[in-house]
Amino acid sequence: MFVQNSALLIYLFFTAYITTVYSSSSSESNVYEYDFYLTWEMSMTYTDSDGIIWDVTLDEGNLYYTPNLTRLELKKEDVVTLDGEQNKFIAINGQYPGPTIEVPLGAAVLVRVFNNLVTDSASVHWHGLNMRASNSTGGFATPWADGVAYVTQCPISPGETFTYKFAATQAGTFWYHSHLGMQKLDGFFGAVIVHDPTMPSYPSFFLLVNDFVHMDATEFALNFAPVMHVENKPKLDACAYPYGAPESALTNLPAASHLVNGRGRFENNTAPLEIHKVEQGQEYMFRITNAGFDDVFEFCIDDHLLTVVGVDSCEVEPVEVVSVFLAPGERVNVMVKMDQQPGNYWVRYRAPDFVKTTFGYSILSYTNSTADPTTSPEACTADLPCKSLNGPFIASPNWEAISIHKLRSTRYHLAEIDKIRGNADNIVEKFYSFSSLKYYAINGRSLVLPQTNLYQDPSAKTGVTCNDQLCDNFSCRCTYIEKLPTKHTIQMVIMHSKSTDCVHSWHMHGYRFAVLKIFYPVNGPDAIANETDITCSNDLCHDAKWVEEELGHFEVEYPPMKDNLLIPVGGYAVIRIYTDNPGYWLAHCHQDTHLYMGMGMIFDIDGESAEKTIPSNFPVCGDFILD
Question: Which residue ranges does the record assign to the Plastocyanin-like domain (predicted)?
């Protein structure tokens, strides 16, 4: 017996001592416990009962390994295939994506993370979960468990264990992922579903969709450094400009493939795909998450309409569409009726209008067949346009775009919406502008993380001080922390400055926000115009204000509540929060490359009072300077 690939011997050596166990338990105390073991693994390999790792080959959609010159077939469940090519990845309990956490509303969740990555630190962010106290369990708020390295915790070093504990105080579709560097690109993510037992339940599919490249995060950063660092880059001819509109790129980093629950195909290979087995006449919920690092993608199912019933963790009144768009970090719940003839149908995931358009696929199957479908997407025309939710451009050929802010929350969220309505005495308005004049930044400030977590040492909170004159006029790199008043309604205008030409998505930790308005620029075959409602003194737009004051006045009815929002190129969004969750909360663009380069900021919302929640033995870290 032998190890087919010598490089894999290294992985075997470092991971042989780990027993990969996934355990979850619930008790009368309503505490759900999970153990996460982090390891580096290799796709398209198989570990036999003796611990020997073998290369796996593809042949007409089947998987094989060849011990002792005898070719043996494998089940697809026994192999992490990714897109059918060999690539290293971060596994959680040997899985890609990681195991799903599924708990009832009000549960206490305890996750022990064992970092066996040998040379890499880690952290886990619970995306969309606000770390608030639970009324049902009486548990305390745990802002320290938000999982942002150097903001809410020290990174988990190799060989260390870190325990997260939080209350599941919101129902809906969430997910978890690394919040250190660009580790999410390595596959460090998984789904979190919180069920409200008072709400109807349906048979469901959880879809974690991500763009995938054939290198790890470190290699990616090194290979794409000339593109990623603004001060060094020329005008990017590789950027895609949908419909010929200049200055309106969706991405300049096209992926090799799209994966659905860890399965996809590179180019024309025959790697096995994710299959959703359904019964004719039934109705199913698809919980779709964009777990990718850069791509905005469009989701649709051939010959089936989608009824949108939820965005992020918010229930909305039903809206029927042909497709939905999701920016990185966004989630959409759709209901789909199985009203077609038995057979297999393509489920499509398209990164639209890139120079190299990237497609991903899974299969909707009314039968037990694994054969590739022969179906086609909806034929949309100018006379019969297709409806699509959350498109990045309002004027799209043959499409009728429905903006997120046109959705209406159900009365399930009434208490939360009442809080953000506010009144003239307690509404504070703030403008935040994405820019990339010299650095990827917000309001001209490119985020430098502090040397230690902000709950650890008050004297270490400043990090790199922001020089306002430099930041406002030329852009700068600093630890951008903004203090917001507590118990106030904060209206935020999130906008693209004229200095940035790629799409961005706004994600807030610790809060979800009401979406009051999304403004799309005028785009078409020849031009795109930036917003005209807002005026600024320079291209960084650090001092934005409304052209007319009444443009910032809104009647709040039942807006959708979100924690992640696509901001159209050249446009803006108006959102609101109510500041009743103390802590230090990161807000940032959820394109990993943009955050990696500094497009983020930290809100201090009575962070000092939140320090009282920190466990007495909480890990500490920071620089050491010899006196």
Answer: 76-197, 252-368, 477-606
Tell me the average pLDDT of the chain.
86
Tokens of 465: 């001080």
Tens digits of residue pLDDT in 257-267: 999 999 999 98
Residues 178 and 40 in one domain: yes
139 domain-assigned:
yes
Does residue 397 share a domain with residue 444?
no
In one-letter notation, the amino acid at residue 299 is F
Q: What is the pLDDT of residue 17?
A: 33
**Is 417's pLDDT higher than 60?**
yes
| CA gap 24, 32 in Å, rounded | 6
What's the domain count of the chain? 3
Residues 6+ apart with CB under 8 A from 468: none
| Cα(389)–Cα(319) distance, integer angstroms | 9
Its domain, for residue 302, covers 204-402
Q: In terms of domains, do 389 and 430 share one? A: no
DSSP lists the bridge partners of residue 64 as 57, 73
Residues 176 and 248 in one domain: no
Q: Is 595 helix (H, G, I), strand (E, B) or coil?
A: helix
Q: Could you tell me if residue 1 is inside a domain?
A: no
Q: Do the beta carbons of residue 134 and residue 169 sit within 8 Å?
A: yes
Whether 32 and 123 map to the same domain: the answer is yes
Encoding tokens for residue 103? 């708990």
Q: Is residue 393 part of a domain?
A: yes
E strand map for 48-183: 53-55, 57-59, 62-65, 72-74, 88-92, 101-104, 108-115, 124-127, 161-167, 172-178
Q: What is the pLDDT of residues 22-66, one digit of tens each?
A: 445 554 578 999 999 999 999 999 999 999 999 999 999 999 999
- 527-562: pLDDT as tens digits: 344 557 888 888 788 888 999 888 889 989 999 999
For residues 154 and 90, membership in a common domain is answered with yes
Which residues are CB-neighbours of 372 under 8 A, at least 6 positions away? 344, 363
Task: Report the DSSP beta bridge partners of residue 441.
Answer: 435
462 pLDDT more than 80: no
* Residue ending a domain, choose from 151, 174, 195: 195
pLDDT at 24 (0 to 100): 54
Q: What is the pLDDT of residues 427-441, one digit of tens each?
A: 999 999 998 777 889
Show which of 195, 216, 240 is a domain's final residue.
195
Pairing of β 583-589 and β 504-508: antiparallel
Report how far residue 401's alpha carbon sits from residue 17's, in angstroms, rounded to the nearest whole number: 53
Query: How many residues are listed for the chain in this entry?
Result: 627
Q: Do 19 and 138 fall into the same domain?
A: yes
Residue 235 is predicted with a pLDDT of: 39
| pLDDT single digits (tens) 173-190 | 999 999 999 999 999 999
Positive/negative CA dihedral, 498, 502, 506, 509: negative
Residues 376, 466 within the same domain? no
The candidate with the shortest Cα–Cα distance to 591, out of 342, 390, 295, is 295
Domain membership flag for residue 511: yes
CATH number of the domain within which 24 lies: 2.60.40.420
